[in-house]
Design the sequence.
């Protein structure tokens, strides 16, 4: 089948590890389903894999891709009752976990030692004509969304949903600062937060991106820099309830300064550096909370689908590339020059 995969990992030129070619078709085992992939989106995780930055060691070749939407092709033995029929359009929940350890049993499989994303560990990724996942991981595709938009729900929207509504536990009327504008996570967080009745601040180095962020729902766009924290403190009347942080070193000082007392920073990435000064005096004196977050549970994915469908929320797509043009998409991902999601089409 057609696939976009890493033929090697690491080295000086990660994009040279990217191959567009043929890989064996996967077969669904017991309790598994095979999906005919229609669309999958690019995530920083895919570029990290090419760079050799992987959570679980594995041997290439490895099909890349952390999310997908498509059509149920067929099930292996032991199809679960009530699962979508072959031919049904589906959203793929892109996380697997052991389901047996105490953490899985306690209701948060994201804390499972064996939690893996598609393309990690033993799992092939979604950038191929077919994808095999555990059968409980396919849910009916929202009718209001295209395959490309549905694919974007699996990583960035799920991550943003958990950050806003589970980790920060934000309620209507509260306020949030989204650091950075333009990336998939920031655009997802802005759209979800606005629909949930939150006051949304966004900070970016680019005036053009701030304007675009305001078009998708941010009420206040603030240029990043020395005065950003002061401006946000003033506009928010003394500090925001939460910060959605995925940038890291360039934004961290502002993230700490704009919080109200007892406020929370939720971190799901550090794309521009992972070791900013901690400013611990501020953390304890103002009783700030710092929480890490990754992806979300299957129940949170169901909740997300239920949240976006009636509200008509549509993930922002920057561009859809045919699978054969994956390299062009990866060049843009590496450059960070995107507004919304880059999508690969396998139709
Ligand atoms: Zn587990």
Sequence:
């Amino acid at each position: 089948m057609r696939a976009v995969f890493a033929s090697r990992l690491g080295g000086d030129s990660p994009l040279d590890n990217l191959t567009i070619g043929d890989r064996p078709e996967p077969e669904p085992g017991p309790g598994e389903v095979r999906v005919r992939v229609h669309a999958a989106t690019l995530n920083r995780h895919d570029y990290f894999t090419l760079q050799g930055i992987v959570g679980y060691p594995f041997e290439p070749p490895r099909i890349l891709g952390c999310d997908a939407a498509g059509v149920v092709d067929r099930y292996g033995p032991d199809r679960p009752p009530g699962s979508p029929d072959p031919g049904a359009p589906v959203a793929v929940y892109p996380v697997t976990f052991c389901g047996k350890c105490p953490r899985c049993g306690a209701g948060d499989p994201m804390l499972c030692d064996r939690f893996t994303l598609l393309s990690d560990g033993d799992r092939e990724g979604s950038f191929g004509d077919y994808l095999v996942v555990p059968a409980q991981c396919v849910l009916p595709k929202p009718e209001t969304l295209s395959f490309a938009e549905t694919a974007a729900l699996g990583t960035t929207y799920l991550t943003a949903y958990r950050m806003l509504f589970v980790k920060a536990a934000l309620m209507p009327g509260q306020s949030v600062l989204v650091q950075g504008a333009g990336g998939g996570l920031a655009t997802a967080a802005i759209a979800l937060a606005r629909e949930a009745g939150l006051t949304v601040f966004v900070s970016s180095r680019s005036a053009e991106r701030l304007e675009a962020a305001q078009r998708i729902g941010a009420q206040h766009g603030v240029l990043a820099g020395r005065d950003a924290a002061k401006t946000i403190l003033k506009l928010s009347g003394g500090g925001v309830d939460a910060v959605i942080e995925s940038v890291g070193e360039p934004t961290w000082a502002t993230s700490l300064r704009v919080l109200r007392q007892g406020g929370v920073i939720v971190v799901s990435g550090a794309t521009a550096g992972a070791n900013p000064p901690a400013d611990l005096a501020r953390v304890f004196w103002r009783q700030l909370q710092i929480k890490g977050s990754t992806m979300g549970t299957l129940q949170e994915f169901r909740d997300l689908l239920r949240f976006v469908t009636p509200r008509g929320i549509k993930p922002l797509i920057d561009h859809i590339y045919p699978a054969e043009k994956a390299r062009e998409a990866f060049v843009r991902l590496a450059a960070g020059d995107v507004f919304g999601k880059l999508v690969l089409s396998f139709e």
Q: What stands out?
A: Residues 147-167 form the longest helix (21 residues). The first strand starts at residue 2 and ends at 6. The domain at 158-292 is CATH 3.40.50.720 (Rossmann fold).
